[in-house]
Structures are given as structure tokens and as C-alpha cells.
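Schema walk-through. Below, the input block comes first and the output block second. Nothing else is stored per chain. Lengths vary across the set, and this one has 360 residues.
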Amino acid sequence: MADVLIENLCRKIGPLTILRDVSLSVGEGEFITLLGPSGCGKSTTLNALAGLDRPTSGRIAVGGRVLYDDKAGVFIEPQFRDLGMMFQSYALWPHMTVHQNLAFPLEIRKITGVAARSKIVEALNLVDMEKYAGRYPGELSGGQQQRVALARTLVYGPRLMLLDEPLSNLDAKLRDKARDWLRDLQRRTGVTTIYVTHDQTEALALSDRIVVMESGEIVQVGAPSEIYKTPATAFVADFVGANNIFEAKITGYSRDAATLVLADGVILKACVPSAHTVGSAAKAAIRPEQIIVLNDGASLQGDNIFEVQALGETYQGARHVLYFNLGGVKFSAERQEPIAPGQTFRVRLPSEAIRVFAHH
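--- output ---
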């Protein structure tokens, strides 16, 4: 059963369309991430759920309760929606202690005294911050402030948790730890969560499903592995994970393989359905880790085998990323051992690893 249901949500400001017919169903206890570049509409969608932004049209229901319906004239104010929202800036009141920050949303809901203290202790225990109840936000680290903000979001037991880029203010190492901790916390509490980020690593690591947005529209919804391995469009392929994106022309089909011709005449085979028109321009993609780099002296069989020259490389700890030119396109591939710039080597681009997209 859907815990959150968004139907045909639109948001316009004058002639500008921010959201265009956004529809999404979220199951109870699911962790959903809205992923996309700045300006794609992900935060607007979150704000519409929270009641902080009023859509132009559409419908929103949470737990079977209608929060917004333009045709029925329904708009529930934010404070009556039973949702918890955590902002990118954390929005902690600097003049209040941690305890007071958590007490405030409870006071609004007329929860005071012993009941309030019990909920505050429980929320702080969840985030391992019970020892800091008497401190002010300015006396806490960025990671500790984030945990307090999350405890405040959870303290009154919301049906839905909305998180707007909550890890973006943390340094890289702390962000990795916070990501694992946040996912574990969501699983323990079981609260339905909608998370907004432009960080693909966060989306892949945290989500049950990812919703990729582009220019105010949803372009693909799926499990992290599905989004990564079978992107629906060239935009998704390029935005999620490293990818080699290149222009090609489809010149024919043979059984299950398409023949692609790159700009300078290099021919590739790609195992794709015959859904593309012969003679049409297309975009194709292959991930760096899918390109096979031949070790010296080893034999390599299969299609799409080429001798190339190393343009350079970058060292990334566990791997070296190599760069080479093929068909007028700069490709990258991964290898554990370095290859010197100017050195020739052979590569194979497996036809089954190449994705082909219609050219828009």
C-alpha cells in the first residue's frame, strides 16, 4: 500500500514551469531519494510535500489523508501535516539548548511535561546525543548538529520524514560515516523517508529506490542497481556514475547487434534492441569499469577490440583511470596498474556493455 501518493503535480511561476506532471508512489517504510542537478525540481517537490510551497495543480496524499488537491480545494497547512523535515542548514535555534530545540516542536503539538521529556530522551538516544542535551548548537560539531537536527525531526513521531541534502555541509570522511549511520537509523525506526540530493553516491548507498529528475520531470524510477546498470536515458547514464558518453550513427542491425559508426569512421557493435532507426543519430555510453584493458602478452577475444594510445592517467588509490582516444572521443578505463602516457595498449568495449539512447 502506498504511504505517499503524488499525482500529476505541477508548479508554475509565471511562464516558468518548475514541476511538470510529477507522479510518484512511495511504500510504507521505504527510503526514496530524489536525485538530480540543481534546478531539476527535487527540492520543490519536497517543499510541496511539506506544505512550504503550494503547487499549481495536482494531488498529494500521505497515509490516505489528502494534504493537497487543487480540484477539491484542499491545502493542509505545514504544521498540521504530521511530517518531519530536516533542512540543509539544520535550522537549529542557536539561543536554545539541544533539549529546548527538541522541546519546541512538541510544545506546538501540546506535548509537555513528563511525556515531552520521555520523547526527547528517546530521540536523543536514537542519535547517540543524550549527553549533549544541555549544550547549545554553537558548542557542537557539524556532525553533532546534524544528529540533533535529525532527532528534532523524529521527536514527535512523524509519519513521513523529509530530508533536504542533510549531509552536504559535512566534510567527505564524516559524510561517509553519517551516510551509513543515517541508513541504519531509518531502518531501525521504519519511518517512510524522502531524501533530496544531487550526490549520486549518497543516492546509490542510501536508497531503496531512486527517482531521477531532470527539468521538472521524473525521467526514471528504480532500484539503485537498476538506475546504475540500465539507465533509461543518456542524461541518467551521464548523471549517475562515471560514464563514457559519445555520439554515433546507427548504420544497421545484425541479429541482436547494432552497428555504430563514430565520427572518424570507427565501427562498434552494440547489443541493443532494433528500436532505433537505421541512419539515425544516437548517443551511446559505456562505463569505465566495463572497458577491458588487455594485460601485456595476454590474448583478447571478442568484438570491439582496438589498439589505442594512453593520453594520461589519474591515480585514485585502488585504481588507475586511463584516458585514450577512440573515434575522436576521449574515453576513460580503469586498471590496477599504471600505463605511461604515449604507451600503446589494447582495449575491448564489450558489445553487451554499450547502451544506446535516442538522440534528442
